[in-house]
Amino acid sequence: MLIPPYIGPVLPVEKDKTKKHRQREEELIQKIHKLVQKRDFLVDDAEVERLREQEEDKEMADFLRLKLMPLERLHKAEGPPKPKKTVLEPPPNKPSVVKSSVAIIKDCCGATQCTIM
């Protein structure tokens, strides 16, 4: 592959530019300027949107904290849920502490008259 000899600068020197070439250059500069302005606007808009969303998130967190705070206090006042105590009934043939002595004798002997008495 042959490499062409170096000819010089690709862009013509300012004095060699034609009126048409200068107009085209000015148009391209204006297009670049407009694109940069659009980009700046989009970047600024994205930053404003990010800050707005951040502020909304903060407001929502504050709102929820205020609304949920009474519930947290209520749960703290109640404490952890207490396990339910299950009261087991004693078997029918064993005497119960809460029963009267007559009931204990009846459970023991199976009759109202006990041989122990």
UniProtKB/TrEMBL annotation:
Pfam families: bMERB_dom (PF12130)
UniProt xrefs under PROSITE patterns: BMERB (PS51848)
Domain BMERB: 1-62
Name this polypeptide is given: BMERB domain-containing protein
Chain positions covered by the region annotation Disordered: 74-97
